[in-house]
């Protein structure tokens, strides 16, 4: 422990806590506000942090129920929030599973199978990784528009199309998983090889069971990325019933139709599960964040 | 380690059956691909057909021959990247060399078909009609033409009209109005083969195509006018040289790029947006890195109690889905009833115009992005700090160095090198951070006096997105051209990042 003078130490402690508390207040302000707004009456009203007349109207609407006000008027939910959340989770889960399959098999080959052009492909992936698919939305739209004329379930406004386009988000994950595979003791697969295992069997029975933690990290990272993805989804999904949450949520805050209160409830309802998932996975994510990007 | 050397069909009992299954599967895949290729070819998309063929052929070859065993592992991933990133990037650039836009949306065939569909009423074919009480259409005798009657509306298409033997009971005009939609959709075939459609509220008449296609591609009108196709600009032109919409897509070479370079109304906003994109990416990187590092260092201080609680709460902005936080800020910053302005006006009497003043809108964008991005750095730097030797701090304390001196002389030099590639990646991410702009400001407030709709908070990426997908005047060609510029910049950043990482890896293995 570092030796310091008592008085200056106390001053610094107060400073540190004070700074952190003020900073936290600023950071938490939006969360508290949204929570308060979701219980307020109406969609424009302003008021104190603790609503004078709390109402469950916005929450009922977000959960998909009709709400009867005190004066007898019945309000119907403006948007199918739970359906959107379902769409997001469905697309996210399937796409993440796909990403996991594609990136583990590729990473295995890059880590353990010497083949011509290996380093070249790896380096290319690292550079391609910087090009977000969002910049090529015009072309992605054109591709699925054309494909949809031949195979309707793969066209614009279909979830399979979105999932298929999301499969391209594997570049960084290949590097992350390869880094992990590189750290597996080569003696293990040598032994398997001597016992007559094919590379596929070594992959299936040795590498996969060993790398469950990193696979979980990749799965969660991919899932969170897909839940958050807006540009490609907004171009490919146009019908209200097909939208993912990221695309649909925007509908609440148009200048012409501003549903601030309804949005607040819907935001908390849909944001909470994802936030909790992230906080649980956070500890594992950190290592994934730095390892994958730095290991060469 | 080289296991692929020893690969051959291992003779185990199930091998024969497994192979059979594999070939059956491959056959099914090949058939599915052939179906799609055929469909694409029939839909007049030869380029797509060829690309799909290449993909299908690659799958069949790699999974059919055991020679390519290794590539079976690599191919699916690489193919996904090639088809959904590399191909779209190239395709987007290619669109930049065409005039693909709202006015030139279709292919030549479709434009031609559109003009050929234009009908004119045939003179003298007009016949007044009445709707009978049974829902039939009755044409009274007219000059030397006998009275005709059809079966009830909707019973056939076209409705065959037959000579009416007696005069039926007819409805008033009100019934015609009520059945207007059905009448407009109806076609009637007279006994001499003429096809009649509704012409106004009181009559039916025959119509014929206005244009006929000449062998040289010119469209000849019924009144002798001519539409001459101009493949240079993708429009039909009248003999006076006037453009006739709609147009079709044609390659225009470097025209879009020339416009970017020379046309004042286009170049000015692009230069402005380009500079702002760089400023935004750089400031975002610096702000998130400094705030994140500062917090990580404070939280690492051994005398601080409750660091774990602080840490969980401080990570929250990163844990909440970004699109939700951004929309929340959109509401909180609202000028009229947003909570931020309410508090500011109560405390200081201020009501900043967050969404209409360019400088304030940009400030807001940076505030929100810092809020969103600092936890990433806080988490990362906390990890890097573990690698800083504690002895150094002890030595510094003995020499009488204060906390600031310690930070700049010991901590920063230790954490900066491993951060460099991540800083570059962060810069590239923010350079293309179009989600933030699209959800928070949609690019607004608008830059006045520009030819293309451009906003002062637009990043290059969101600018092109809006150009392509806004309701007002989609311009895919120009969007493609500007995207090409973005690709070039992104490519340079990506390569720089790649070199830095290589150097870092080399240093590490040398250690």
UniProtKB/TrEMBL annotation, chain A:
Q: Which residues are listed as membrane-spanning?
A: 14-39, 89-110, 122-143, 163-181, 202-227, 258-280
Pfam families, A to Z: BPD_transp_1 (PF00528)
* One cellular component term from this protein's GO annotations in UniProt: plasma membrane
Annotated GO biological process: maltodextrin transmembrane transport
UniProt key word Transmembrane helix: yes
Q: Which keywords fit this entry according to its UniProt record?
A: Cell inner membrane, Cell membrane, Membrane, Sugar transport, Transmembrane, Transmembrane helix, Transport
Per its record, what are the GO molecular function terms?
ABC-type maltose transporter activity
Q: In which compartments does the protein localize?
A: Cell inner membrane; Cell membrane
Pinpoint the ABC transmembrane type-1 domain residues.
85-281
CDD domains in the cross-refs: TM_PBP2
Q: Give the record's membrane topology.
A: Multi-pass membrane protein
Give the protein's biological function. Part of the ABC transporter complex MalEFGK involved in maltose/maltodextrin import. Probably responsible for the translocation of the substrate across the membrane.
The UniProt similarity line reads: Belongs to the binding-protein-dependent transport system permease family. MalFG subfamily.
Q: Tell me what this protein is called.
A: Maltose/maltodextrin transport system permease protein MalG
From TrEMBL, chain B:
Keyword Zinc recorded: no
TM ranges are: 20-41, 47-66, 73-91, 273-299, 311-333, 364-385, 476-498
CC terms in the record's Gene Ontology section = maltose transport complex
Keyword Cell membrane, does the record have it?
yes
Q: Which InterPro entries match?
A: MalF_N (IPR035277), MalF_P2 (IPR029345), MalF_P2_sf (IPR047103), MetI-like (IPR000515), MetI-like_sf (IPR035906)
GO function term, MF aspect, one? ABC-type maltose transporter activity
Give the way it sits in the membrane.
Multi-pass membrane protein
Q: Which GO terms describe its biological process?
A: maltodextrin transmembrane transport
The protein's location, in the record's own words, is: Cell inner membrane; Cell membrane
Domain ABC transmembrane type-1 positions: 274-497
User: Which UniProt keywords are listed?
Assistant: Cell inner membrane, Cell membrane, Membrane, Sugar transport, Transmembrane, Transmembrane helix, Transport
| A Pfam match | MalF_P2
Q: Name where it mostly resides.
A: membrane
Q: Which family does it belong to?
A: Belongs to the binding-protein-dependent transport system permease family. MalFG subfamily.
Oligomeric state and interaction partners are given as: The complex is composed of two ATP-binding proteins (MalK), two transmembrane proteins (MalG and MalF) and a solute-binding protein (MalE).
Biological function = Part of the ABC transporter complex MalEFGK involved in maltose/maltodextrin import. Probably responsible for the translocation of the substrate across the membrane.
Q: What is this protein's name?
A: Maltose/maltodextrin transport system permease protein
Tell me the classification of the organism that encodes this protein.
Bacteria, Pseudomonadati, Pseudomonadota, Alphaproteobacteria, Rhodobacterales
Q: Which gene is annotated as encoding this protein in its UniProt record?
A: malF
